[in-house]
Design brief:
The complex is a heterodimer of chains A (85) and B (298). Chain A is mainly alpha-helical and 85 residues long. Chain A is built from 2 helices and 3 strands; from the N terminus they run H-E-E-E-H. A two-stranded antiparallel ribbon of chain A has the order 2-3. Chain A starts with a helix and ends with a helix. The radius of gyration of chain B is 20 Å and the shape is flat. In chain B, 75% of the residues lie in helices and 1% in strands. By secondary structure, chain B is mainly α. The chains are: A mainly alpha (85), B mainly alpha (298). Strand 1 of chain A pairs antiparallel with strand 1 of chain B, so a sheet runs across the interface.
Chain lengths: 85, 298
Amino acid sequence: MMPENDDVMRGHIPAGSPKEPGPQPTVSQGRYVPAPFVWEQLSPEQRVLLGQRQRSRSIVMASLLGLFVILVFAIAIAKIRAGHA
Amino acid sequence: MTTATVTLPADWRDFLALTKPRVMTLVVFTGLCGMLAAPTAIDPVLGFTAILCIALGAGAAGALNQWYEADLDAQMRRTRGRPLPAGRMDRQSALHFGVGLAAFSVILMGFAVNLVAAAILMVSILFYVLIYTVWLKRRTPQNIVIGGAAGAFPPLIGWAAATGHVAPLPLLLFALVFLWTPPHFWALALFVKSDYAAAGVPMLPVVAGERMTRTQIGLYTIPMAAVAVAPWPLGLAGWFYGAVSIAATVIFAALAARVAFRTTATEDTMQPEKRLFAWSILYLFILFGALVVDHWIA
């Protein structure tokens, strides 16, 4: 059963079929355990979307980390100039 | 038919949406004005860091609010498109993101700026999440009155970041935002009343009715107007702030009076309430902007 395009875009992917329901979320020792992520159950377009998301998240994280390093250097210089260090 | 669902890792834009960027705008602006109105000039890099921390702290509070209120958001038309109720993100990711961001913002503020600003930032995040979101919001129609304090902290944080202490002027700014919150939110609540009622949130129009809400809007406007103008006669601000605050407050009071004394007709489009809500946002921008300009003129 192929998911609706809207579902794919929202990242909310129905997995498995009515006969083969796929992994289910469970409750273990009172804690919610999400359904395991099964790569084989993703359609080709879902795999492409997953790759795109991971790539864009990596770029954003790397950029933020780089900016944070620059900010730390700038803070250190500002503190030294102000005579705090 | 049983269908299991597999949720893909959320997009980075959904994490951004979790921080409520539009709410953050006003928070950052009031924090920046609190900093710029302080008598001590702060190093630009440290000032930028302080504002960044205020923004991240507000974002963290917004993320934790959405994490806790995902069930309510799903029932309201205004909020059902948010990442959690729309199913674009799992709750655990939102929780980790919110807690991580909150800790990061407070620690960075403490190390880079000063401990007073960091402590107030931490109190404001905890107040918004624990006092407003978890405790008050679902229990009492006074939720936004007490919870309004959370949104009033940023000018105090900005001032503390610049000076390292708290003074009468930022406390007045705190009181201004605190007293401004009820008329602002109740004007909104009047025209999205059905949404709140459907979600079971005890907002004043739902619990006490429209008449009481309109009266309360009028009553809260009186002390708010007094606090808004107070910095001028108290000698904490100059003539420019005095003139702008009186003009802007007269408009606010006129719009609030119009809302307070009218009754909802059949097929009412609630235009006066929408006008008051829109002006209330602009009002805060104008007052804080005037305070900074006044400081520069002085």
